[in-house]
Amino acid sequence: MLPKRERTLGVDPDKQIIALYARGATPVRSQTSPLNHLAPTSPLFSQRSRATCNRALAYRESHTTSVNTWDEFTEVLETKGGFISAHWDGTTETELKIKELTKATIRCIPLDGDAEPGTCILTGKPSERRVLFARAY
Questions:
Q1: So where are the chain's domains?
Q2: What gap in Å lies between CA 71 and CA 74, rounded to an integer?
Q3: Which of 9, 30, 33, 75 is close enough to 19 for a disulfide, judged by CB 3.0 to 4.6 Å?
Q4: Exposed, middle or buried: residue 7 (CB in 10 Å: 0-12, 13-18, 19+)?
Q5: Tell me, what DSSP letter sits at residue 26?
Q6: How confident is the model over 106-134, as a mean pLDDT?
């Protein structure tokens, strides 16, 4: 879990202010700001949200492994874990069979990025794109 770096203490919609308590590399500080100053262009908001987003993306990338074969898939599940990017033929039968054999389920079908044709890791049938599998712990 990523550490919490900023907490909202309270929002007063009548006065249109927000009270923030921020913690980071600098000493603890508090700030009261008008709500309209917390637009995405606000330095405080942009800096904090960009840093949080970058940490989340780095975490996701470091915990995602691409595989092309069934043997690679099962090996990564047993040794590394995390998300596994693999081809799937798009059928419910294959999805259920993978779940039955490994307890891994599809967690995400990425719609952004280029479609990468390939072959299903289990059946060898054509696949339009990779999906993300994971197993609950």
A1: 6-61, 64-135
A2: 5
A3: 9
A4: exposed
A5: S
A6: 90
